[in-house]
Amino acid sequence: MKNIKLILGLFLAVFVLNSCEIDGINTDTSYINSASSANSNKIFDISTDNSGAVKITPVGEGASKFLVAFGHGTGINASALVLPGNSVTHNYPEGSYNVTITTYDLAGKETVNTYPLKLTYVAPTDLKVTPDLSGYKLNLGLSAKKAMGGFLVYFGDKTNEVGTPVAGTVNSAGEVTATVSHTYATSGNFTVKVVALSGGAAQATTSQVVKIYDPYKLPVTFENEFQNYNQGGVFGGVDAAIVDNPFSGGLNTTAKVWKFTKGAGAESWAGTWTPMSAPNSVPINIDNGSKFVMLVYATETGKALHFQLEKPSTGGGNKAIDVNIPVANQWVELTFDFSTLGIPAGTTFGQYVFQYNLAGSGTGEVIYIDNIRQTNWLKLWIIN
Predict the structure, then answer these.
(1) Are 368 and 305 in contact (CB under 8 A)?
(2) What is the sign, positive or negative, of the torsion defined by CA atoms of 306, 368, 226, 272?
């Protein structure tokens, strides 16, 4: 009888334990199998800067982890394990892809879903090209937004030219920037084309004509298209410009001349300066002649034209000569003789300066200058 009671008691205890829920513990485990394709989704966040970056955020109820296969890349770069609530970013070239997400629930069951992804890059914007000349060498500064593929540059000096690829870097403003240089064999007008690449099929193109100059040198005639007569500048209130010859005839029938205007109120020392140093110019070598001859037209006499050689390669400082205008209202030839100023042989000068009537402030005087040349004509005459 005692044995029967003991067995019955054990049976009742087991029955009670199996039929009761322990306080505070949910014993329902059905949720571990709840992850399915119906509640598993993939979110694409595609960048708009042509970087190809796509942020992938898979979600799914009851998921313990996700395996994202990008549909692009190899080895460890072809997929990534993502925990719930996290994302993964992958960079894609332009094109179409199938991204596969495998969702794992807490019981280890997996669900596989595949999602199409298409990336189309947009054309770069705000393409800018900034040229800078140094002799025959052209330096280009390039910039564009969304030019993640860099640039192709055509310099325009070859038949069937293949573009030069130029890689860029992204600056703090989000622009892709780059620099590139090219040296031309001769002077001329060249059409430079720059193509900004999106990284895909889309692109942006701009073209401009760049004039490559011969190095500036004497003689100066103001007639050569490929001499940069606008080198240098003005100071003290004067103005200078190349103009059509307003007084063609006599000693000067050329088409273009240089107009020097000392405006009313300009400083007495006002003038112009012209650099004569490499690579954009050829320095003035005194061995090529100690006399400088030019044609001048003025509307009054008695005032002096001041011509100064500056930035000497040897000691002795700047050298200058003043020559008075002898005749008004006609072209005359003035000679500035530096032979008596003790300039050492082999001296070169890196700049010349013109000033007019250093004795007084400007009153609106206008003179014209042409055919500036260097000569040793007196030495040649003695030899002959």
Answers:
(1) no
(2) positive
Domain of 289 in residue numbering reads as 233-383
> Do residue 138 and residue 82 come from a single domain?
no
pTM, 2 dp: 0.78
- DSSP secondary structure letters along 182-193: EE-SS-EEEEEE
Low-confidence ranges of the chain (pLDDT < 50): 1-41, 379-384
> Using CA atoms, how far apart are residues 306 and 360, in angstroms rounded to an integer?
13
CA nearest to 110, candidates 143, 76, 149, 66: 66
What is the chain's Cα-based Rg?
A: 41
Question: Is 106 in the same domain as 48?
Answer: yes
**Residues 6 or more apart in contact with residue 76 via CB below 8 angstroms:** none
Residue-wise pLDDT tens digits, 10-61: 333 333 334 344 344 344 444 344 444 444 446 899 999 999 999 999 988 8
Please report which helix (H) or strand (E) contains residue 377, including its range.
helix 377-383
